[in-house]
């Protein structure tokens, strides 16, 4: 997914001294310490220039973006682009989202300690890791592609994100077993708000979701439960991969309230 935000190219500079940025307890890595130094510096520059510099203000979100190792979530052939501010393919017609948009959507959720978050579209697991890195929410993530669900679950566990629960299934129907959710984030674009997701939203909850036509620009919507009524707020134009599955294919588009 991509929003048109300019980014700086990643400069491969190995520094003798770097900022000590923790990736959380018990997190492992698949790269050498020298490579980690390079990736850490690139990540800090990305956050400073293209995320904080582009208007993200929530300190917890900025901390999570500084800490989560995006290079662990991209295919090997795209490692040199891991900290450029654009989406990357991860196979099966899916992408890992642009870092700015991951931060933006996370900030829009307005998460509070102790809340439960439902993510629709696990993909590589990067967005789930950012949510988990906040350190005070439980994350439930649904991925329709079996291979991606398995890979993401393995990757997240290896990196120590024990507060992420992954399920393979059709995200259109949410995850009723653990509903209601205080926040729901959708990382693929349907042409309407899936009714099951609205039904699984807790009182006062928030949904952040791109909605629009397949293969074209969409709008990012924030829905907020206000006194039992779902209010819709258009946050601006975005481009996401299409929402897939029997759920969305079997339901006609409905107008946004």
Main β-sheet, spatial strand arrangement: 5-4-3-6-7-8-9
The secondary-structure element order is HHEEHEHEHEEHEEEH
The CATH topology of the domain at 87-249 turns out to be Rossmann fold
* CATH class category label of the domain at 87-249: Alpha Beta
Give the biggest beta sheet: 7 strands, mixed
Multimeric organization = single chain
- Indicate the percent of residues in helices: 25-40%
Looking at this structure, what is the CATH superfamily of the domain at 87-249? Vaccinia Virus protein VP39
Describe this structure in words.
The protein has a seven-stranded mixed beta sheet with strand order 5-4-3-6-7-8-9. A two-stranded antiparallel ribbon has the order 1-2. 27% of the residues lie in helices and 24% in strands. It has helices at residues 33-52, 59-67, 99-108, 126-133, 146-158, 195-199, 246-249, and strands spanning 88-91, 94-96, 115-120, 137-143, 164-168, 181-186, 201-211, 218-226, 229-238. The model is unreliable at 1-29 (pLDDT under 50). The relative contact order is 0.13. It has 257 residues and is of the alpha/beta class. α4 links the parallel β3 (115-120) and β4 (137-143). It is globular and about 50 Å long. It has a domain at 87-249: Vaccinia Virus protein VP39 (Rossmann fold, 3-Layer(aba) Sandwich), CATH 3.40.50. The protein contains seven helices and nine strands, in the order ααββαβαβαββαβββα. α1 (33-52) crosses α3 (99-108).
Quick overview of this protein structure:
By secondary structure, this protein is an alpha/beta fold.
């Amino acid at each position: 997914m991509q929003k048109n935000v300019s980014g700086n190219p990643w400069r491969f500079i190995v520094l003798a001294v770097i900022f000590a940025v923790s990736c959380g307890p018990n997190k492992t890595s698949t790269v050498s310490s020298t490579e980690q130094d390079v990736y850490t510096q690139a990540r800090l520059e990305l956050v400073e220039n293209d995320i904080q510099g582009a208007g993200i203000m929530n300190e917890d979100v900025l901390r999570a973006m500084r800490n989560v190792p995006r290079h662990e979530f991209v295919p090997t052939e795209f490692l040199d682009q891991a900290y450029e501010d654009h989406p990357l393919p991860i196979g099966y017609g899916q992408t890992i989202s642009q870092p700015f948009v991951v931060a933006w959507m996370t900030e829009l959720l307005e998460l509070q300690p102790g809340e439960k978050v439902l993510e629709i579209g696990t993909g590589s697991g990067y967005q789930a890791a950012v949510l988990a890195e906040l350190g005070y929410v439980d994350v439930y993530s649904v991925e329709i592609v079996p291979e991606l669900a398995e890979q993401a679950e393995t990757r997240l566990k290896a990196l120590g994100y024990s507060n992420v629960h992954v399920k393979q299934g059709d995200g259109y129907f949410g995850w009723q077993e653990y509903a209601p959710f205080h926040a729901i984030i959708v990382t693929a674009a349907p042409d309407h708000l899936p009714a099951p997701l609205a039904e699984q939203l807790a009182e006062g909850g928030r949904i952040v979701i791109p909605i629009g036509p397949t293969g074209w620009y969409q709008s990012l919507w924030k829905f907020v439960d206000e006194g039992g009524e779902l209010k819709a707020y258009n946050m601006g134009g975005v481009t996401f991969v299409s929402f897939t599955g029997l759920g969305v294919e079997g339901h006609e588009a409905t107008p946004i309230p």
